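User: tokens in, sequence out, please.
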């Protein structure tokens, strides 16, 4: 195996995790231009833009969920795939050790984190031979759990909410794609992009859908029928009004890429792979002898990177509400859906393992008046202490079965997360006097800079992302999307976008 292969793959992994490709940057810039200044979506996009710049400047993870590494490798006949696989795995472990990837691979039965992103099925590596003796091509996509959970697969014909019957036709496929984007709302950190496969079987359909995400956002489908479908989706989908993070707005999707595979006559699947705005995908071409990078794919290193944010980045409007935890019931009940808060003081991270634990154990800290942050941070040892290097919110809906009980039992006053929560939590907020604060999903670098200190950590036996980290926040911006009076921005946007869905797709 060429000696430079390991270093080249390591460079690819680090660059993919920390620097968005130019086509995604361009699409996000275009999205920023479309949203009206001062709106929730415009403010969220300003934070995202600042985060993208901060990640590239400091070579930090764009999002703390560095996703499932999926490699597509094309190699000459005779190249040793066993050794390549070993080197790719070693590069993943090294990138994790350097904090460029979060430890993200857990045993599905025990929940134990392998700590190095290696394990059965992690990373995913697909090899293909090509008739090019002198080069190896390695492409990588890092797709996080929030957007992966928003993938959808339809078996046609089907009856779709707000759209009626979707037949086995291009029109039926169009309805499925619109439905998938509407269904995702902000949970997959919109504005997103979709890779779609028409046909195949249930397994190959999802694989081919994900392969579509290796296309650039500005390419044109060589199949004119699919090109027309992609254009038709992009021409109408943004009328849905889902907006950035599901806050409502003019841009819900930045790309739609569709492929087709033959199918069995009895089956007609439409598989949709939803990727978030943190659409991390890069590639390299290597000299097959030396393993050195001869060129990058999707980016031109000689072209200077244009900053995403304008000079000011996230700008305050003066209407923000400054809060310091612990919070009182009175403070919390004075907040209404749409308020932007700047939160300071202590917050405690809690994801799936912590919530499950708190249902049957007392919390390791006093949570009265407290703030729980749905977040699995990337944390580095810093002398005797810790330093948070990436800390955006994780998808909150997973905690729906627990949240209302935990708020009531322990006196929690605020929950920070992304994507919103359900009816049970909404009722719990009203009953107990608490709010749900939506932070900007994926803005891991931006939020890491609002964490001024790590006071400690509890429940470390759950692994770094799942442990309860005790954080000191300073002016952490978030939007009240569920208040203590029964108000929910998520419910409002979902209802309004359902009406639009029916109008454009029905
Ligand atoms: S931006 Fe959102 S959906 Fe994407 S990886 Fe990060 S948290 Fe997950």
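Assistant: Sequence out:
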């Amino acid at each position: 195996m060429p000696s430079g292969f390991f270093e080249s793959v390591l460079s690819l992994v680090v660059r993919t995790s920390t620097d968005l490709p130019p086509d995604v940057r361009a699409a996000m810039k275009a999205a920023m231009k479309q949203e009206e200044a001062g709106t929730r979506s415009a403010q969220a996009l300003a934070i995202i833009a600042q985060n993208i710049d901060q990640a590239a400047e400091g070579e930090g993870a764009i999002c703390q969920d560095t996703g499932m590494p999926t490699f597509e490798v094309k190699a000459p006949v005779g190249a040793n795939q066993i050794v390549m696989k070993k080197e790719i795995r070693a590069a993943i472990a090294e990138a994790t050790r350097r904090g460029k990837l979060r430890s993200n691979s857990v045993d599905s039965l025990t929940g134990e984190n392998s700590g190095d992103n290696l394990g059965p099925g992690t990373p995913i590596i697909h090899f293909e031979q090509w008739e090019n003796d002198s080069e190896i091509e390695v492409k990588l996509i890092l797709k996080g759990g929030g957007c992966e959970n928003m993938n959808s697969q339809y078996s046609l014909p089907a009856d779709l909410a707000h759209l009626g019957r979707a037949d086995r036709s291009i029109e039926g496929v169009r309805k499925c794609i619109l439905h998938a984007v509407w269904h995702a709302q902000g949970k997959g950190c919109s504005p997103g992009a979709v890779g779609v496969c028409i046909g195949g079987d249930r397994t190959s359909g999802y694989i081919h859908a994900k392969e579509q995400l290796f296309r650039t956002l500005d390419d044109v489908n060589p199949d004119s029928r699919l090109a027309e479908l992609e254009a038709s989706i992009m021409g109408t989908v943004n009328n849905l009004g889902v907006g950035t993070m599901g806050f409502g707005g003019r841009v819900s999707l930045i790309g739609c890429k569709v492929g087709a595979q033959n199918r069995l006559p009895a089956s007609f699947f439409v598989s949709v792979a939803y990727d978030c705005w943190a659409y991390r995908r890069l590639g390299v071409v290597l000299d097959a002898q030396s393993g050195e990078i001869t060129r990058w794919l999707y980016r031109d290193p000689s072209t200077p990177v244009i900053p995403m944010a304008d000079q000011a980045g996230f700008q305050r409007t003066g209407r923000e509400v400054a809060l310091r935890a612990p919070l009182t019931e009175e403070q919390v009940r004075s907040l209404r859906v749409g308020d932007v808060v700047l939160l300071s003081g202590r917050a405690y991270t809690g994801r799936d393992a912590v919530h499950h634990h708190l249902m049957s154990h007392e919390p390791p800290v006093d949570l009265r008046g407290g703030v729980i942050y749905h977040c699995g941070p990337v944390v580095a040892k810093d002398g005797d202490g810790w330093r948070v290097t990436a800390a955006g919110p994780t998808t909150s809906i997973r905690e729906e079965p627990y949240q209302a009980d935990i708020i009531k039992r322990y006196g929690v006053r605020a929950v920070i997360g992304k994507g919103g929560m359900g009816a049970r939590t909404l009722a719990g907020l009203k009953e107990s006097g608490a709010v749900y604060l939506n932070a900007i999903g994926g803005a891991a670098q931006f939020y890491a800079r609002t964490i001024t200190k790590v006071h400690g950590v509890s429940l470390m036996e759950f692994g770094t992302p799942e442990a309860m980290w005790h954080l000191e926040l300073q002016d952490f911006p978030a939007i009240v999307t569920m208040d203590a009076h029964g108000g929910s921005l998520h419910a409002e946007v979902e209802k309004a976008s359902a009406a639009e869905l029916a109008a454009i797709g029905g």
